[in-house]
């Protein structure tokens, strides 16, 4: 069965601190996708990144970076120099790679990040 | 607006009543998804439409839940004989193939409270 675990329920940091959100996944598929979504207080989930299981290269986008390690089944997300606007609930998700099931995402329970000024 | 629109934003109903939740996806998006999010949990997949047809309804919890998308655009999620356990935020999302797998555009959700 597929499963996503986000062990950190809530994290609180002070602005400009770096913070890493952990994500561990389980799947029997050899081909799959991993995602991070952000859910601000408005409730609308916003897509941040997708990685496929064959691409273990780390990725950086501005202050955001992602570390994908198949050996430990982890896909961690780091925010550098956090800002108050980063405050949100962040979800890690997993999906199979075939056809329409790509949109059938298995989400973790989320990590609530609070960035204080 | 250009995003996914969901109505109503809030719905309070009594146990046993019938409820309809509407989703208007981004224009041109052929794929539409319904998810349910309970308090403190991640979204849980309910059903996926490709065009007018339900391509995957494996997430619908029981036969009280039904969804339609008759013209391949707007979708309605229907819940019969509501129960208190149905209380949650119901999220709709749409996507296009040009956006890549799993890149879903979500609406702000319809919060359902069953008293």
Task: Explain what this protein looks like in three dimensions.
The complex is a heterodimer of chains A (117) and B (115). Chain A is mostly beta strands and 117 residues long. Chain A has no helices and twelve strands. Chain A has strands spanning 3-5, 10-14, 19-21, 24-26, 32-39, 46-52, 59-61, 64-69, 74-79, 88-96, 106-107, 111-116. The model of chain A has no long low-confidence stretch (mean pLDDT 92). Chain B is mainly beta and 115 residues long. Chain B has no helices and eleven strands. Chain B has strands at residues 5-7, 10-13, 19-24, 31-37, 44-50, 53-56, 65-68, 75-79, 88-95, 105-106, 110-114. In chain B, strands 2, 4, 5, 6, 9, 10 and 11 form a seven-stranded mixed β-sheet that branches. In chain B, strands 1-3-8-7 form a four-stranded antiparallel β-sheet, with no helix packed on it. The A-B interface holds A 4, 33, 35, 42-47, 50, 91, 93, 95, 97, 100-110 and B 3, 31, 33, 40-45, 48, 50, 55-56, 58-59, 89, 91, 93, 95, 100-109.
What does this entry show, briefly?
Chain A has 117 residues and is an all-beta fold.
Keywords, please?
heterodimer; A: 117 residues; six-stranded mixed beta sheet; globular; B: 115 residues; mainly beta; seven-stranded mixed beta sheet; four-stranded antiparallel beta sheet; 11 strands
């Amino acid at each position: 069965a597929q499963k996503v675990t986000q062990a950190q329920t809530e994290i609180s940091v002070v602005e400009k601190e770096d913070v890493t959100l952990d994500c561990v996944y389980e799947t029997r598929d050899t081909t799959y996708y991993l995602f991070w979504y952000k859910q601000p207080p408005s409730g609308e989930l916003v897509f941040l990144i997708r990685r496929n299981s064959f691409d273990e290269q780390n990725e950086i986008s501005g202050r955001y970076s992602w570390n994908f390690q198949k050996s430990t089944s982890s896909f961690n997300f780091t925010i550098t120099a956090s800002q108050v606007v980063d405050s949100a609930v962040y979800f890690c998700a997993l999906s199979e790679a075939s056809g329409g099931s790509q949109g059938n995402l298995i989400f973790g329970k989320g990590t609530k990040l609070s960035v204080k000024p | 607006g250009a995003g996914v629109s969901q109505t109503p934003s809030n719905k309070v109903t009594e146990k046993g009543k019938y409820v309809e939740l509407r989703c208007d996806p981004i224009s041109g998006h052929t794929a539409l998804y319904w998810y349910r999010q309970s308090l403190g949990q991640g979204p849980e997949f309910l059903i996926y439409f490709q065009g007018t047809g339900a391509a995957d309804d494996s997430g619908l919890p029981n036969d009280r839940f039904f969804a339609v998308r008759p013209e391949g655009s707007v979708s309605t999620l229907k819940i019969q004989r509501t129960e208190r356990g149905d209380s949650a935020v119901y999220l709709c999302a749409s996507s296009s193939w040009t956006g890549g797998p799993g890149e879903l555009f979500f609406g702000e959700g319809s919060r359902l409270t069953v008293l």
